[in-house]
Prior knowledge:
By secondary structure, the chain is α+β, with helices and mostly antiparallel strands. The protein contains ten helices and five strands; from the N terminus they run H-E-E-H-H-E-E-E-H-H-H-H-H-H-H.
Amino acid sequence: MKKTGGGGGGGSGTGGTSGDKKRGRRSYVDTATDAPPRKQAAKKDIFQIFAEKVRDHKDLESRWAILQETRVEYFRGKDFVKFLSNHPELKDVLESDKNLETEDIANILLRKNLTVRCDRVVKTIRPGKRKLSTWPAHLEIFSDQVFSDNDAFFAWTFVKRQPLWQTLLSFSWPVVALAICLFPVYPHQVKLLILYFCAGVLLLIFCLLLLRAFVFGALWIVLGKRIWFFPNILAEEATLKELFQFLPKKDEGERPKWTARLFFALVSVLVILLLRHHAPDEAARARYQKKVSNIIDDVLEWSPRLALSAMMEKQTVLNTTASGENVTDASNISTQNITQANDGEGVILPDQYEEELEPVEHPDR
């Protein structure tokens, strides 16, 4: 009995141990099955953080372009390779995958839809150009989504995180719009300050455009080179940093012919002489300045009180004119009737005129 009991106890103990082992194996299997999704999720978050850090870094050169009617930010494959070789510390974000090659990291970004490979829409050299544009303005999705550093472009597919100052700036736009609408009720000195500031900004922009056009024309005629200072000042898809870039772009076109340069030089001289001949004299300039000053004074001195008083004066003048016209019409009608009565025979007069025309009997007669 004891043996049996012991055997039973041993059997139950063995059975319990095997059950624990099975449960332990089952729990281990469950943990093993749950581990890969968590690991993949962690990897996805890591690569998302890595992509955001790379995109926000100022050393990775990028541009904006139109991809299937969508404005995207893109970079070149060779710039991505050069960037990671110069900044290997960014790979530390990838933890266990930080030893991967640049090509493997780029392919993982493509598989996770953090980037998409693009190709230029215009694949032929335009007339007057020696090579294709370095940064095309229009892109299309490439068929083979594999990383390459040979004339390959990659666009970011995720939305860039908006800085706090941009969020605060977006809330200030309604206040700015309301302040612009309230400009007529500003004090006179504030109006003058705003007017001179806006006029100064516009004058600066026009002078800058004229200066860069003059420099471009002079260098193109004299040296045969196309040099634009502030090359992105008229660009519609440039960032604030690119907008005020002073250095000119490289001349990618062919050297112009001397006949074309000579022709435009003669045209420029003729235009300058024509403008000088038809320039306004001092009297005309003074008249124009006086006219503009009167317009500016009317705008600056406007106020709701003056507007209401002007409207009331206008209404009073209209009422006075209307009443005067009524009196004039009535007198004209009376005069016309009396004239007809005197000149015409057999004219039937109204009763009131008959009473007025009856002879008056004098008591002496």
